[in-house]
Amino acid sequence: MLECRNLTCVREQRVLFKQLNFVLCAGEILYLEGPNGVGKTSLLRLLTGLSSAYSGDVYWQQEKIVEQRESYYQTLLYLGHKSGVKPELTALENLQYFQRLYSTQANADLFEALLMVGLVGYEYVPAAQLSAGQQRRIALARMYITDCKLWILDEPFTSLDRQAVKALEKRLVEHAEKGGLVVLTTHHELSMPESAYKRLILSAPTEEELYV
Ligand SMILES: Nc1ncnc2c1ncn2[C@@H]1O[C@H](COP(=O)(O)OP(=O)(O)OP(=O)(O)O)[C@@H](O)[C@H]1O
Hints:
28% of the residues lie in helices and 25% in strands. By secondary structure, the chain is of the alpha/beta class. It has a single domain, classed as P-loop containing nucleotide triphosphate hydrolases (Rossmann fold). The protein has a five-stranded parallel β-sheet, sandwiched between helices. It has a four-stranded antiparallel β-sheet with strand order 2-1-4-5, with helices on one face. The structure holds adenosine-5'-triphosphate. The site of adenosine-5'-triphosphate (ATP) has 11 residues, from helix 1.
C-alpha cells in the first residue's frame, strides 16, 4: 500500500499543493491529472523519495519511505521524463544493464521484452540511432522484465504511436491485475475503462494557499 499523508510541496517559496492525502492499494492504478506546471512531476518525485516534501510523509506498507530507502527502491520502478536509456548501448545491452542494476524476474527473457515493445530487428542497434519513440520503447521494455511491485511513471506515453500506447495501457492493467500498483501522469486520455483506475486531479492553489 502506498500512502501520502498531509503532503505539502513547496518550490521557490510557492506552494504547489497543500495537505495532500491519498491511499493506493495493491491492484490499483492512480491517474494523476492536472494542467502544466501544477506539480504532477513534483508529486511523483516525492513519491520516489528523490525530493523532499515541505511537510507530510509518503508511506510504503505503513512505513515512511525515508526510513526504508533500500528496500523501497527494490520494489519501485520509476520512469521519469528522461527515460534513462544509454545512447551508446544497443537496445539489448540497455536491458542487460537494467537487469544487472535492478530487481528483475528470475527468468526474464530480454528478447521477448523487446518483442513486446515492437523492437524486433533493433536488438543490436545503438539507442542513439533509434527514434525518440523507439528509445522510449526500450525504457518501457523494462516493464516486461521487472518484478517491482510499484510503478511510478511520468508521461510514459510520450513519443509513442497509437498502437504502442494501447499495448502499454494493456501492460499497466495486467500489472494491476496481478496485485501491482501504478501511479502515472499523462496528458493523454486513457482508453482503458474508467473502472480500471482512480483519478487524482491536482489543481492550482488558491491565492491564500499560494505562499507558506
Ligand atoms: N527543483 C525545482 N526548483 C524550482 N522550481 C521547481 C522545481 N521543480 C519544479 N519546479 C516548479 O514547480 C512547478 C511544477 O512543476 P512540475 O514539473 O511538477 O509540473 P507538472 O504538473 O509536472 O507540469 P507538466 O504537465 O508541464 O509536466 C513549475 O512551476 C516548476 O517550475
